[in-house]
Design goal:
single chain, alpha+beta, Alpha-Beta Plaits, two-stranded antiparallel ribbon, 6 strands
Length: about 110
Amino acid sequence: MSDQKKPDKLIIAVVQSQDGELVERTLEEANYSFGKLPSVGGFLRERNETFLIASSEAEIPELLDLLSSVAKRRVSYLATPIDNAPFPIVIPTETVIGGANVFELDLDYFEEF
């Protein structure tokens, strides 16, 4: 980012691991500075990747459009047991997974070396 304006925002984007490689490739092509960390989600215990992306205030709308275009939501099925059944009966329950959870933080200090 040395040829661009210094970043004043830190974007934390948590995406499903299935979309992680595509998000990484897209951020590289758009010349964003970022770091990637593996993480595990809470609800379905899915594997995720957390991206720490340096950005300027003016780039935020473009970055959010970029993330929403590559981190897609999809339908998955979760095995749910029926309560009060005489023997265990599991029925598939439709749930939506994927997409991105995005957090925007102000950067007080940034140094690149």
